Every structure is written in C-alpha cells, then in structure tokens.
Amino acid sequence: MNIVVLDGFTLNPGDLSWDELLSLGHCEIHERTAPGDVLRRAAEAEILLTNKTELTRDHLENLPRLKYIGVLATGTNVVDLPAARTRNIPVTNVPTYGTKSVAQTTLALLLELTQHVGHHAQTVRESRWSGSLDWCYWDRPLIELDGGVLGIVGFGRIGRAVGELAAALGMTRLAHDAIPVADSGPVRFVDLETIFRQSDVVSLHCPLTPQTYGLVNAERLSWMKPTAFLLNTSRGLLVEEQALADALNSGALAGAGLDVLAEEPPPPDHPLLRARNCIITPHLAWATLAARSRLLHIAVENVRAFLSGHPQNLVS
User: Fold this and answer.
1) What's 149's DSSP letter?
2) pLDDT reported for residue 39
3) Catalytic residue among 235, 240, 292, 294, which?
4) How far apart are CA 7 and CA 11, in angstroms?
5) I want to staple 5 with a disulfide (CB 3.0 to 4.6 A). Which of 24, 29, 144, 225 is the partner?
6) Side-chain-facing half-sphere of 272: CA atoms under 13 Å
7) Is 264 a known active-site residue?
8) Taking Cα atoms as reference points, which of 203, 166, 206, 207 lies closest to residue 186?
9) Residues near 122 by beta carbon (within 8 Å), at least 6 away in sequence
C-alpha cells in the first residue's frame, strides 16, 4: 500500500516515531502541503492521512487510486465527506486521544484569568518585586473559584473531564448538551439561557455543527454577568468574535480564555488579539506529548484495522 501523510509536522515535529506507520507500507511523509500540491503529492496514494490539509470534492474525484482517508484529529470538516461516500472511500478519525490534555488547558486558561500567574511572574522578571516597597503585590483582581458556577456547553468526554477538575476546585456545575445525559451525578442540566445567565464561567466543549455555528453571539454574551469569563478550547467558529471583542472592551464581560479562533493562524488585525483581558493560546490544547503519542498510535491502528478488513473509528 502507498501511504501519504500530507501534513505530519504538528503531530510529530520530531519527538515521536513514524516507525509503526512505516511498517505498514511504502510511506511518504510531508511536513506541510499547500492546497495546490495535494493532487501531485497524493497521486499514487492508496491511503491518505491529513490533519488540517483540506481534501475537497475535486481532490477526491481526481485521486483514482485512493482507498482510505485517515484524519489525524477528531474533527473531520477538512474532508468532503459526501464526496468520500460517493466514491465509497472510508474516512476515519481519532476521537479520544486528547481528553485530559484539553481539559488541562481549559483549566490553565481559567487559572490564568483568575490568578494571573503568568502576568505576575513576568513583572517579577522585570524587577518589579525587587524594587517593591512591600513584601507582596498584585495589580489585577485575584479571584477564588470555590463556590463559583461553571457552565459547560457540551457534556461529552472533554466537558465531563473539565467538570471533574472544576469540582475539585469547589465549583457548582451546570451543563447543556444536545444529547440528554441520563447519569449526570451532581451536574445539573439546564437550557442555554440559564447557562449564560447563571454561570461565573462558561466553557465550550461542543462540536461545530450548523446548530452550534455562532452559538456565542451578541445576545448570549449580553446574558452573561459582567464578572463572568468565557472559555473556548473547542472550535473557533462557535463564537462570533467581533461580538466577543466588543463585550470585553466595553466591560460587559470580565475576560476570555481561547485556544481556538475562526481563522488559524489569525490575521494581525484580528479583533481579539488586542481585546481587553483576552488570553489566546495557539491551538495547543491537544498537543501534549502524551496526547500526540496516543493520536499517532490510534491513527496507525486505524490504518491497520482498515488493511485487515475491519475498519474502526469510521465517520464516513
């Protein structure tokens, strides 16, 4: 089998091994692939692996040897799934590799918004503590989370993991999910308006669908407490970004912690890059060594399962 990886660098920048995949067939691994190079690089591919490189209907119609597509991620919006179905090309993803890592990043964003550890550490490096008249100082509000309310939008694996971390901090948990959850324990399920109105922190953990596109809009932001925070480690297009920037800059919202944006990388004039009290990390929640190791292993197992005639993690 001819195996082609279109964009392997973010998954494996050099700290993992491709040996498992190399054992399955002739393999070409590209760090990145521009849209105009997809057809040339994938021309002989029978198995094609992609992370963020898009595979359009035109690509799929012009790759006659292609038998399988593996997405090196959970989200599969980079593949034209109806076109893949038309050609009976199975598409798989890796659904569970990063749960703990994404939950950890969500908590890290929240703690930075409430404790400002990074900011205050930077002031110490700049000798501010050395020149202080007092034995301690802080220049931003320090907020205790115990007794606060966390609203979780999307109560899948990651939402549940974030809820467990919040419980350890003493937070009350509200949740909303498109699919009713029978056994929610101490988590109370409510409608979206209740989530936005009652939560001190709203954390997004839902997939991007036509129903969730632009879910956080100006109206829902207006429901939030001016002391509340918004967290998004899910999908950038869940949030109307100009509306969020406006809410932050006007003081209608206390802060936001984001690991994802609608356009990645963002343009230099993106409204949230300079918004008040907005912490943005470069889509790194998934990228711990442990999570990437699991992702690579499961992606290879997906290929192995396909070759054995028993495909797993099928999305199309």
Assistant:
1) E
2) 98
3) 235
4) 8
5) 29
6) 26
7) yes
8) 166
9) none
145 DSSP assignment:
-
The CA distance from 113 to 201, in Å, is 11
Residues facing 135 on adjacent strands = none
Residues 8, 31 contacting (CB under 8 angstroms)? yes
Query: What ranges make up the beta strands (E) of the chain?
Result: 2-5, 26-29, 47-50, 68-71, 91-92, 149-153, 172-176, 188-189, 201-204, 229-232, 255-258, 278-280
Our CA angle for 11, 292, 168, nearest 5°, is: 140
Mean pLDDT, consecutive 10-residue stretches, the chain (316 aa), reads: 97 98 97 98 98 97 98 94 97 95 98 97 98 96 98 96 98 92 80 97 94 97 98 97 98 98 97 98 98 98 98 95
* Dist. CA 171–CA 285, nearest whole Å: 22
User: In the prediction, which pLDDT does 181 show?
Assistant: 72
b/e burial code for range 79-108 (CB count within 10 A of at least 16 → b): bbbebbeeeebbbbbbbebbbbbbbbbbbb
One-letter amino acid for residue 50 of the chain: T
Strand positions, DSSP E, 110-233:
149-153, 172-176, 188-189, 201-204, 229-232
Distances (CA, A) of 132 to 135, 138, 175: 7, 11, 44
Q: Which amino acid is at 216?
A: V
Question: Residues for the chain: how many in total?
Answer: 316
Residue closest to 146 by CA, chosen among 124, 180, 172: 172
* CA–CA distance, 177 with 158 (Å, rounded to integer): 12
Q: Which amino acid is at 160?
A: R
CA–CA gap between residue 117 and residue 3 (Å, rounded): 45
The pLDDT value given to residue 182: 65
- Residue 147's Cβ-count burial label (10 Å; 0-12, 13-18, 19+) is exposed
Q: Which residue among the candidates 160, 176, 283, 294 is catalytic per the annotation?
A: 283
| In contact, 186 and 173? CB cutoff 8 Å | yes
The answer to whether 215 touches 90, Cβ cutoff 8 Å, is: no
Which position has the token pair 């009713």? Answer: 180
* Whether 32 is catalytic: no
